[in-house]
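Standup notes
- DV: blocked on the single-chain target, sequence here:
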Amino acid sequence: MTTRRTPTQMAQDALDTARRKVERADARVQRAAVERDDAFAALTALPEDLRSAYVLQLRRLLPVACPVLLLTVEDAEEGESAEQTAAAAEEIGTLFTLAFSVQLRHVESVSEADGQAEHKVYQLYTQGTGPV
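- DV (later): unblocked, structure below
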């Protein structure tokens, strides 16, 4: 003989199932975020001749209309001029415009113990999904 489940028990089962699915999805999102962070951090470690291939591969992997924020910290080495420090921004423009439209969204100058740094946020748009 089978026992009948009450509506409350059935609702609890459904909630438990939903919670397990959310936990599994959350774990996948966290793993993906770590992989993406590692990938972006690796850009500056790549030899210059491989960086454009990296950006093109990144574009191929991202879905259409996927929002992308690129965060940079540009700090001047001791004795560098502002023009030399600006080379990083030029490289961002040169590399990422191969596959994205790039728009600078925010710049914040920060005083650090060893000098001045600029924290920048770029919005990257895939082809045909630029800013409105």
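- Follow-up: The beta strands are 68-75, 100-112, 115-126.
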